[in-house]
Amino acid sequence: MTLTEPGTESTLIWLLLALIGLLALILPGLLQNRLQREKRQFRAFFEQAMVGMARSTIDRRWIEVNPALCRILGYSQDFLTQCDWITLTHPEDREHNLQLLNAALAGERDEILLEKRFLRPDGSIVFVNLAARAVRLNNGQVDYFTVVIEDITQRQLAERQFANQVNRSLALIELPQQAETLNEEEFMLQALERAESLTASQIALL
Fold first, then answer.
1. pLDDT, mean over the chain
2. Alpha-carbon radius of gyration of the chain
């Protein structure tokens, strides 16, 4: 049986209480410093990212946008945070985009992934991969969306150019085979049709 010296137990209790009090004073500051550090790191990543990043309200307005998104779309930060982004969306893509947005607002999905087109100030089209995620309140309602946008315009143009080259090659391969089954006039008409489809121009037969 171990005997506790007089006053030892009370001393340990006071030391424990003092330690708890010290931690209560120090921990909030440590947590606050860590939170501030993480905020600075996120802000640096947000500002320096190579892809477009933004937060969007449920009524299709950007709360904040990063410099990369401004470069991709060709608009200033002030302009983007004051406009409805659906107006910058290519008219043919708007309906599908709104369907996905409404599904997220209805609680049917949290993520939106799609390829779409935006209109730049000079009227040119930029192709993008867009990924958005709903951030919800405790009641399940959407508070805002986080959005990441990647410019894939050059890839789209390269894919279209490759497809055109394939079509030209197939046309050249098929023409000799068709010459064996068509008379001269039919063959010339077929060749002109192929030439017009490949060059997107009209060619007259003299």
1. 79
2. 32
